[in-house]
Amino acid sequence: MEWYEIEHVRAVDDKFRAKYAFKPSSSIFAKPIIPNDANVVFKEYKILSHRTYEEEAEREYFAGEAWTKRLFLRFFGEEMYALDWYHEAYRFLVDSEYPRGEFGDWYVPYLPDGDYYFFLNMEMDLAWLSHPWRKTVTVVGAELVDYIETNGCPFLK
Fold this sequence. Notes:
seven-stranded antiparallel beta sheet, single chain, 157 residues, 3 helices
């Protein structure tokens, strides 16, 4: 397994908070997660939900995992962070097998399911930030936003 749990989470948390305006909240009025630097390109996308059957939903979810991993491979470099807010934080090799939890999804899922999940390159200037209460993913970095705007994403609008 090429995922390593980060022991000194405080340093990673401090680095994240220096780059992003983030105030965890369970309110439906929670604020979006945005870069602190006003010059950084980002866009918040709504998560599409058009699943009707459990089997179809599972198929779409795993297809979304594959799409997201291809995006990470294309833009994020060799190594990146996966943060499960208030839980574990990992460093991992992008081109490795992603460990799975009890329901078969990644330890840190690419879409929110009640927790905040963040995927960031090592410099934290490219990011995939999922927000459970807003039901959104904020994509940070001009090249990521441009790629999604040009090519679309099967589960974001």
